[in-house]
Amino acid sequence: MDQQAEYPEEPIYEPEEVQDYEGATVAPPLESAFGKYLREYRLLNSLLMSLLFMIIFFVAMWNLIIYVAIGGEGDSDFSDGGAAPAQQQQEKQKVVKLMQRQQKTPPTAQQTFRTTAISDITLPDFNELDVKDLSPVVNAAAPSTGNVGTNNDAMKSALKGIGLSLPKTMQQRCDPKKRIARLRSGGGKEITEAAIIRGLNWLKTNQDPEGSWGGKDKDDEGNPKPSDKNAMTGMALLAFLGHCELQDSPDYGPTVQKAIKFITSTTPEPAIKGGPGSYSHPIRTYALCEAYTMTKIKRLEEYAKRAAVHIINGQNENGGWAYNYDKGVAAHTDLSVTGWNIQALKAAALTGVSIDGLDEAMDKAIEYTKKCQDQSGKFAYKMKGGGKPSLTGTGVLSLQIWKNAKSEEAKKGLEWIVANQAKEWKKVDVYEWYYHAQACFAATGVSGGAGYWRAWNKDFQQIVCGAQASDGHWPHGAHFHGDTDIYRTTMTILMLEVYYRYMPSSKV
């Protein structure tokens, strides 16, 4: 104790003067300039360090989000290993041509056709459709052809502009990367996209010189069986548009040009005669409306609008459509014809063109559709009839595309579809599956609806792709009315394009 009092410990120095034992004052140590800066600006330094850590955190999170969105999805086994050089060149050409649309110039020639009941309609020269008479879709200058590839920033920007010119529900199909991403996210595989390309190549090869399909069609046994040219051309054109193959496509441009020229070579308001005409007009209108929406060929606007108005005027009082567009209680009104007219009017709605009476016609059509469902969930050919597998998807899709995707009727129909899916191609009715595939995929846009698509897709693409013939067409499966090579192949391509052709949506 005495020794501690005689020899005290060394004082502990503080930043400010401190009092030690017995009242002695101890001077603080000398402070460096850096230490003085840290002491005087410690609040600012803390804020700067916090900001730095926040920036690092957000950069890391952004990279994680991009990885998940582009390459980290799901359990699909589709592998995007990069485009082949030939594909890169094709996509480059497509973007350059699409961007040329902003260089709007008047057409060098015009075509005119005459009808007896309407005034003349002037149409563009469809041989000049690669860059003529087009509304701009991209505002950027065309990139150099020497350095544009599928991963090039200029291409990405161009494709983004092209996609954004379309209705939101159609934007995914025109960007190759988004198309692949949608395919993958929906459980699609490499075989599906490859099958679509082979099918389009077969259609290209089998197009008639005048631009139509159907004149040299064949039945399920390979025998000649000409089919309705307007209907088959409309279906084939929809298949090309579903893959965003337009009039300036490197591979299919001339094919698309000739198809548009053919389906606009006659009046948009034809006389509807018998069963074939009752189907061919709405199918052709569907294709016309989608072609206008995607190409923005100005003179197609009036043509598509008048074709749609012809459908509205042909609606029966009960809300459906009949053979010959007949009216009254005795008319042959059925859900099969009605389904195509509903699809055509939905395509007309997506054009953005104002069409009087469209909303009212669609509302009436939906009420008619609901009256065709039986207690099992299936939809019938006619009101109050027994449900049919081939019409069930027709009913469900009609409800989904016009304000009723969440309805109890749609749910009951979907439950029946997934519980009764065929498991081999020879039992597949392509008319039925065309609707079923779309209905199940569209259900993913409704809360809790993804389970229907997962159940359907489990076997769907393997069955369909595995049945394709080596030349690209699809052979006969189960029997259905009007079975031909063209019809069967176009319907199958459209059902495979379901992964990216439209986004799931319950709104117009």
What does this structure look like?
The protein has 508 residues and is mainly alpha-helical. It folds into two domains: 2-57, no CATH class; 156-499, Glycosyltransferase, CATH 1.50.10. It is built from 18 helices and eight strands. The strands form four sheets. The chain has a two-stranded antiparallel sheet. A two-stranded antiparallel sheet has the order 3-4. Strands 5-6 form a two-stranded antiparallel sheet. The longest helix is centred in the first third of the chain and has 29 residues, at 42-70. The chain is globular. Mean pLDDT is 79; it is low at 1-25, 68-84 and 98-164.
What brief labels describe this structure?
508 residues; 50% helix; two-stranded antiparallel ribbon; disordered N terminus; mainly alpha; 18 helices; Glycosyltransferase
Topology, element by element:
Blueprint: H1 2-6, E1 18-19, E2 25-26, H2 33-40, H3 42-70, H4 85-99, E3 110-113, E4 121-124, H5 153-164, H6 176-185, H7 190-205, H8 229-242, H9 253-263, H10 274-295, H11 298-313, E5 321-322, E6 333-334, H12 335-350, H13 358-370, E7 379-380, E8 387-388, H14 389-400, H15 408-419, H16 430-442, H17 450-467, H18 485-496
Helix pairs in contact: 4-5, 7-18, 8-9, 8-10, 8-18, 10-11, 10-12, 11-12, 12-13, 12-14, 14-15, 14-16, 15-17, 16-17, 16-18
